[in-house]
């Protein structure tokens, strides 16, 4: 119970700080919408082409969104010298990880909740369906599970903005491939049973990386 | 280094360090330190930049792990009891550990939750009053002066009534008012059993606060003086001799 109390306090602190500054959400949201608009112009109005490329565009966009937003997960903490203050508190490192991860998840889901209807409107595709929402939420959990860990690793490096994508993107390949394939099927109106295998891959990835990231976060943050 | 008091028991010792080594890659920041500190002692660590003072504070605050040796804080091993140890330690450094976008009250509320402090509001008001920041408690930290931020940082460190206070060059960047408040609080604290572990560049401050002085140079304790028998002039000479830095 105490663990979750601490986790919620960290998530609350990050969320409250973000509400005050809108540093991450506003800039990342503008970036996300711009990418969607640029891709829309680039591929023209041919509905067949759009249907084919839309899942790829969507997940490339959300991957960039993830990199940008997760890059900021620990930077304010580091810049203000608060990370050591947090580490000196009588809380487990896992609580720090889960708290920061939930805050990043919340920010990304907010951005995606705004971006998805815009994407649906511009590409004229049935994006706002239960399968698409499920795929988006599951893949985003995978993004933040890995991204929060790598963001903590990257803050102690000089070129931290570059380090995160270099570490993050190769590890995220299974989630991106699964999300693209599952989205392709969902947009073609395929039943749940056909999507299941891709969704399961994302789900298993989420569980594995949540557990592994939680366990190795202590080492990432301490040295 | 032992405090030389043969009458002290293990229970008296709040900090016990044996053969402490900390390496960052190939660089040895701390080289086999030995130190015992009894409850209520005020220990001042003097040393030039790069001597290992901050690393030592971070080890004692359980922020970083040691490479080899043994550290016991209130008889507990940081590896197995880090959270219990952290509950007994307050840390004040030149960094405030405060979130600029939050108000002073929100910062104290957040740290209060982290330390699971009962009757948080009452305690926040107490510590804010102690550092004379009650009128600015609801202002965002990034609108406060450096000195005011450090006063809130002092309040944050005292929030959970720590029995050990670790101070890492807390005067850096402080205005005279904040400096005097900090030392006023520490002088009041002399009355109780709180252990104070201070690292500083200021020989005057070390002499004033510490009832035990140590000089740390290149990761090793080069000199120790127990008691308050030194004059500032003597200390300057000794410091110059052991650190090679003219003061």
Features:
heterodimer, A: 223 residues, mainly alpha, 9 helices, 86% helix, B: 247 residues, alpha/beta, Rossmann fold, 6-stranded mixed β-sheet, 3-stranded antiparallel β-sheet, 9 strands, 35% helix, globular, disordered N terminus
H/E order of the elements of chain B?
A: EEEHEHEHHHEHEHEEH
What is the CATH homology-level superfamily of the domain at 10-88 and 162-243 in chain B?
P-loop containing nucleotide triphosphate hydrolases
Q: What summary fits the major beta sheet of chain B? A: 6 strands, mixed
* Broad shape of chain A: globular
Describe the structure in your own words.
The complex is a heterodimer of chains A (223) and B (247). Helices cover 86% and strands 0% of the residues of chain A. By secondary structure, chain A is mainly α. Chain A has one domain. Chain B is of the alpha/beta class and 247 residues long. Chain B has a domain at 10-88 and 162-243: Rossmann fold (3-Layer(aba) Sandwich), CATH 3.40.50.300. Helices cover 35% and strands 26% of the residues of chain B. Chain B has a 6-stranded mixed β-sheet, with helices on both faces. Chain B has a 3-stranded antiparallel β-sheet with strand order 2-1-4, covered by helices on one side. Chain B is globular. Chain A binds chain B through residues 2, 5-6, 9, 12-13, 16-17, 20-21, 76, 80-82, 84-92, 222-223, and chain B through 58, 61-65, 82-84, 86-87, 89, 91, 93, 95-102, 106, 110-111, 113-116, 140, 156.
């Amino acid at each position: 119970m105490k663990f979750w109390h601490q986790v919620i306090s960290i998530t609350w602190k990050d969320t409250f700080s973000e509400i005050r500054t809108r540093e991450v959400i506003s800039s990342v949201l503008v970036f996300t919408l711009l990418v969607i608009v640029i891709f829309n112009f680039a591929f023209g109005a041919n509905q067949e082409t759009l249907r084919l490329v839309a899942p790829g565009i969507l997940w490339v966009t959300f991957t960039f969104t993830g990199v940008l937003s997760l890059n900021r997960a620990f930077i304010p903490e580091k810049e203000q010298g608060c990370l050591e203050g947090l580490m000196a508190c009588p809380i487990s490192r896992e609580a720090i990880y889960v708290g920061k991860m939930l805050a990043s998840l919340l920010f990304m889901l907010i951005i995606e909740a705004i971006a998805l209807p815009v994407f649906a409107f511009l590409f004229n595709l049935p994006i706002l369906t239960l399968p698409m929402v499920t795929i988006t939420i599951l893949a985003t959990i995978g993004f933040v599970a890995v991204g929060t860990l790598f963001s903590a690793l990257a803050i102690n490096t000089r070129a931290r903005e570059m380090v995160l994508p270099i570490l993050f993107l190769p590890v995220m390949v299974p989630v991106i491939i699964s999300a693209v394939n599952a989205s392709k099927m969902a947009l073609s109106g395929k039943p749940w049973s056909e999507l299941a295998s891709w969704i399961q891959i994302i789900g298993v990835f989420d569980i594995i990386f949540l557990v592994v990231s939680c366990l190795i976060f202590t080492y990432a943050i301490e040295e | 280094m032992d405090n030389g008091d043969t009458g002290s028991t293990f229970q008296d010792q709040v900090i016990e360090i044996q053969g402490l080594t900390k390496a960052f890659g190939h660089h040895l920041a701390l080289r086999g330190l030995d130190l015992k500190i009894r409850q209520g002692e005020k220990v001042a660590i003097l040393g030039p930049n790069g001597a290992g003072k901050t690393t030592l504070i971070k080890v004692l605050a359980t922020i970083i792990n040691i490479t080899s040796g043994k550290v016991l804080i209130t008889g507990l091993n940081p590896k197995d009891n880090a959270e219990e140890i952290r509950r007994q330690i307050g840390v004040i450094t030149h960094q405030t550990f405060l979130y600029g976008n939050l108000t002073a009250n929100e910062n104290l509320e957040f740290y209060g939750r982290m330390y699971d402090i009962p009757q948080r509001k009452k305690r926040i008001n107490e510590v804010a009053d102690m550092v004379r920041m009650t009128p600015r408690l609801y202002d965002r930290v990034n609108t406060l002066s450096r000195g005011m931020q450090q006063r809130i940082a002092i309040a944050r460190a005292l929030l959970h009534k720590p029995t050990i206070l670790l101070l890492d060059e807390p005067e850096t960047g402080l205005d005279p008012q904040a400096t005097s408040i900090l030392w006023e609080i520490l002088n009041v604290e002399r009355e109780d059993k709180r252990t104070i572990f201070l690292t500083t560049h200021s020989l005057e401050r070390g002499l004033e606060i510490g009832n035990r002085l140590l000089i740390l140079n290149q990761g090793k304790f080069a000199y120790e003086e127990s008691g308050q028998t030194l004059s500032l002039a003597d200390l300057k000479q000794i410091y110059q001799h052991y650190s090679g830095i003219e003061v």
